[in-house]
Write a structure and sequence with these properties.
The complex is a heterodimer of chains A (about 220) and B (about 250). An eight-stranded mixed β-sheet of chain A has the order 2-1-3-4-14-13-12-9. Chain A has a four-stranded mixed β-sheet with strand order 6-5-7-11, with helices on one face. Chain A is α/β, with parallel strands linked by helices and about 220 residues long. Chain A contains six helices and 14 strands. With about 250 residues, chain B is an alpha/beta fold. Classes of the chains: A alpha/beta (about 220), B alpha/beta (about 250).
């Protein structure tokens, strides 16, 4: 496999075309597949996703992809989960009863907070462009997914649940919504998740895809 | 301080971008592809494409347009017009759209809202509501691009739509659409006050103040604009500058 290539996991859910075209726009060859062998040989692996946690996990199980993803992640291959794909990196989700996730980053997927008292209540789904802010862990953005990200660079979010890593050390960036900190980028070594859609965040988002390939 | 989304709405008939008044009397503006790129490069937060005759004739011309613009436009796209089933919705998303807007088919068969929401997620299911005022603080749901009344109350329908799983409401005032005389603020206010999902205000924007009023007086979460953009009365850059000065937070774009 060549360096300028990314494997995008296709498990039959959502708009994968945009993720694919986002990478191709920055000159990266894409392989969209549900084939375990191809996934296990990836140099860069992307787990996209929108919709319901339980259905998506079920689809990964049905295609026997869970073990393959975990195996690749543990080998140190850069793995990027996008939106629901990010949420599935955690241990479990409260969405419609408890569902087990991939367990690659300790934490769980929870309901949105209602918003701080002096702010308007958070609307769910939360659909908006937000700027990213460093988390209290102060992990450096240098050589990360957010390399060159300016404080004013906004990215596009659309989600109804919140991914909460147990440790702040696994949060690279948050966004602020009605006074609440919502995790936006989570990281554990080579395993990365972004709650926003880089493939729908214009130039800023395409730059984030570039940063991922540089890892 | 409120944070809102600025959306370009492109009404399509056949292969053309068109613009009407009260969703009727259509004039051809130009190529949807060209205008979509123009708004993307100006920093639109989202694009909405509506096929204005699809539900009437039972066909959808939008597929090719979406497929082509999705190649190099990297912002969210909502597509409406003629979507009658989960299969239709999946097909549109596979072409590169992120959300579908459903009006007529949802009125005919409200379970469609739940079916799309359960299959593709509520974030992909936008309930498109065409509202016509019948008396003070009362509006009727219209279908087929403002052509047919249904006898359904807009606010009750919006609440039902949220219950059934809609993730967002695209609220178009048939009375104000294309008039440039401002939004139906009472309509937007009554809707945003009744549902907890985001509401996109559509129909009537002629100047910046209209946007400000829809946000501050009526609590709109997003503003869909057509006429004002198509005829270059305002650019996204001008709207962003005016928004920032008046205390509305919008995406920084350069």
């Amino acid at each position: 496999m060549i360096k300028n290539e990314v494997v995008i996991i296709d498990y039959g859910i959502g708009n994968i075309l945009s993720v694919q075209q986002g990478f191709e726009e920055i000159g990266i060859h894409t392989i969209v597949t549900s084939n375990v062998k191809i996934i296990e040989q990836a140099n860069h692996l992307v787990l996209p996703g929108v919709g319901a946690f339980e259905k998506a996990m079920q689809a990964l199980h049905n295609l026997k992809l869970v073990n393959a993803i975990v195996k690749v992640a543990k080998q140190g291959v850069p793995l990027l989960g996008i939106c629901l794909g990010m949420q599935m990196l955690l241990d479990e989700s409260d969405e419609f009863g408890v569902t087990q996730g991939l367990g690659l980053i300790p934490g769980r997927v929870e309901k949105f907070p209602i918003g701080k008292n002096d702010h308007s209540p958070i609307k769910v789904p939360q659909i908006n462009w937000h700027e990213l802010v460093p988390s209290i862990s102060k992990i450096s953005w240098k050589n990360s997914l957010l390399k060159n990200q300016k404080p004013s660079d906004a990215v596009y979010f659309i989600h109804s649940f919140v991914a909460r890593p147990l440790s702040n050390n696994h949060i690279l960036a948050n966004y602020i919504c009605s006074g609440e900190c919502i995790p936006a980028v989570i990281v554990r070594d080579n395993i990365i998740g972004c709650q926003f859609h880089p493939e729908k965040s214009g130039k800023v988002g395409l730059n984030i895809l570039k940063n991922f390939i540089a890892l | 301080m409120k944070r809102i989304r600025l959306i370009a709405r492109l009404d399509i008939k056949g292969e053309n971008l068109i613009k009407g008044i009260h969703l009727e009397g259509l004039r051809i503006i130009g190529s949807p592809n060209e205008y979509a790129h123009k708004y993307y490069h100006q920093g639109a937060d989202e694009l909405i494409f509506m096929d204005t005759v699809a539900s009437l004739y039972g066909r959808n011309h939008l597929g090719d347009i979406i497929k082509s613009v999705a190649k190099d436009i990297f912002i969210p796209m909502t597509v409406g017009g003629g979507i009658r089933s989960v299969e239709d919705a999946i097909a549109i998303l596979r072409l590169g759209a992120d959300k579908v807007a459903v009006n007529t088919a949802a009125v005919t068969r409200p379970e469609l809202i739940s079916e799309i929401s359960n299959t593709l997620g509520s974030q992909a299911m936008v309930l498109s509501v065409e509202a016509k005022k019948i008396e003070s603080n009362k509006w009727e749901v219209y279908t087929n691009n403002g052509r047919e009344g249904t006898g359904i109350d807009v606010i009750e329908w919006a609440i039902k739509g949220e219950d059934l799983g809609a993730g967002e409401i695209l609220l178009t005032s048939v009375d104000c659409e294309g008039t440039r005389r401002g939004f139906d603020l009472d309509l937007i206010k009554a809707t945003t006050g009744s549902v907890s999902i985001p509401v996109i205000a559509s129909g009537g924007m002629g100047k910046y103040q209209d946007l400000y009023d829809a946000v501050y007086d009526a609590d709109a979460d997003a503003i869909a604009m057509a006429d004002v953009l198509h005829y270059n009365r305002l650019t996204f850059d001008e709207i962003r500058k005016k928004s920032t000065i008046s205390g509305i937070i919008v995406r920084d774009y350069d």
